[in-house]
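User: Continuing from earlier, I have the next pair ready.

Assistant: Great, send them over.

User: Here they are, in order.

Assistant: Folding the first of the pair now:
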Amino acid sequence: MNREDLIAPEKYNIADELKAFTDDEERVAVRWLSEDGHRREVGYAELLRRTNQYAQALLASGLNKGDRVLVILPKIPEAYMTHLACLKAGIIAVPCSEMLRAKDLTYRINHSEARAVIAFHQATEETDKITESIPSLQLKLIVGGEKDGWHSFEDLAQTQSTNYAGEQTTRDDVAFLSYTSGTTGNPKGVVHTHGWAFAHVRTAAKKWLDVRDGDVVWATAAPGWQKWIWSPFLSTITLGATAFVYQGKFEPHTYLGLLEKEKINVLCCTPTEYRLMSKVDELGSYDLPALRSTVSAGEPLNSPVIEAFKQAFEVDVRDGYGQTENTLLVGTMLDMEIKPGSMGRPTPGNEVDIINDEGEPAAIGEVGAIAVHKDCPALFREYYRDPERYQAAYRGDWYLTGDLASKDNDGYFWFEGRSDDIIISSGYTIGPFEVEDALTQHDAVKECAVVASPDKVRGNIVKAYIVLKDPDSILEKERLVKELQEHTKDLTAPYKYPRSIEFIEELPKTTSGKIRRVELRQRDKSSV
């Protein structure tokens, strides 16, 4: 596969990919199961009809092509309909997790100048808590229920036609605006086009996930994350597969039982989920003959996990690496030898390399920056309203991912660490700034620094080093730890809270006063 194979036609809308599968009324697009056993199936034909109604409802509500809309929906079929409706109407979806707090949502609404919010009826509370000025917001649509101040999206959609050709878009028109954590300051708005989606499907979905027509695909990421856009969404319904959606908590035996009962063909989990499943007693007692392709992304899997799945189910769990800013850049394809601990090789059609400080390809074994060439079709277009940050991410013609790696003689990449302070825990990407900002708002905290701390299950956890304003007055440190953790959960998404807190007298700093988080990380690793 060449770079040219990843370039979409000039006039293109990713939602149009569904048309090829809608003639068959029996073909299932989404198979949904709730934690309490309720089941629902949505066929491709029905999905398209509902998408058309939702799209026209958005336009009839006063929204226009190019407008931004926050989408806060859980693992339900309506998440597929809503995102597809935005795509068909030329409206830009801003995916948001249900775990975001009022402060997070305020920033995203104001920064994106969103004109509407679409939220599940159980996820409206934080939006309603917003007290700051949000001049752009004109419409609040609710899914699955009713609430004062919100309009029922379903009721609006029911009055619309099931036929809708869609707005004409090009490969360069914006499809998604996804926010990702930064090491300093507020989250970055990552701009992706319809052309990016085209490239992603042909690289990640076909060549790594190995999704085939008619497959049942279970990708466990939740809406609100770019990984959901990647796998549960684009990589299934654009290829005629059935997206299995389980709206329930992770539990190893539950997941393994569902893999067996639902006859899953393709599985995409976080490293943490794989690790916990691999530790189940008598793993091989589960019968998974349908399972063909298993992949993991976020961090390299350790050998025992890979070996456990190979022995129990005769499948190879293959690693993959990418970011919100791009697609799957490096991975182990189906026909490749697995080198446990390796990230794999650059994916077909994507020009990815290890770059040294001079902007040149690094030598074999030399640690450098993982970089993507600026002409890669699966690279993001820009950071929204932040050209300086966008330019700073480049070294010559190469976009720097912020991660370091080396390359062996076979072209396999080996992860060495992050060149910045981003924390990846259980598949979540967490910027230290957001956690530090929350902690310093507590009366007891003078200053703090947040870093990644190694963890056998989650890969890393969030750890906070805290300097107290008056350390002598605080006698019950254990109580204070719990208080600080709950305080953080109240101010930002709960997955970001520090699972470990250590009180210290002073933070290590440079002569210019910058916190040396690298020193704290090294200190933490040495104590493991």
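And the other member of the pair:
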Amino acid sequence: MLAVIYILSTCIIGAYCDCPYGFTAHGDSCYLIVGLNSTWIEAKKYCDVMGGDLAVVESSEEEIYLVNLLKQIDATGRIFPENYWLDGTDVVKEGEFRWMGKNGNSIPISGYTNWAPGQPDNAAVHENCLEIRYSFNILWNDLDCNTRQNFICEASNEWNGDTIIG
């Protein structure tokens, strides 16, 4: 009975539940907020094992949804620090942030962005990974990829165990 309640609470009635376990469906994607302090590459590997990749934010609507999820989590006080890795990095070419995807596939971050004022700034010359930073009003920032913090995974809501985004 609990399984039925869970399925109905996470899926649109009449649609298949096509998110990996633990992810929440929204639009064409599924999201998982992970409170596990990890480097950017560790976070990327974790998301891969879970059936997705680090989140790619491509619209203000998508970001508003994620920010609302983060605010709900923040209200519980269960996750700290309140900064989250996303999939972007400029490790390939300094100053050119890209969504990295999987298997070496990457695309430049263009169109929608939500950088904090003055960001990205490559402070300390080693800030190559993209985060959402609470102390910057939940805006984007570049940070050293070896910093340990939380992260957001994303998967396609057409996930079938074999097909994932990236």
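Worth noting for the second one:
The beta strands are 24-26, 29-38, 53-54, 83-89, 98-99, 107-108, 127-133, 139-144, 149-156. The chain has a mean pLDDT of 85.
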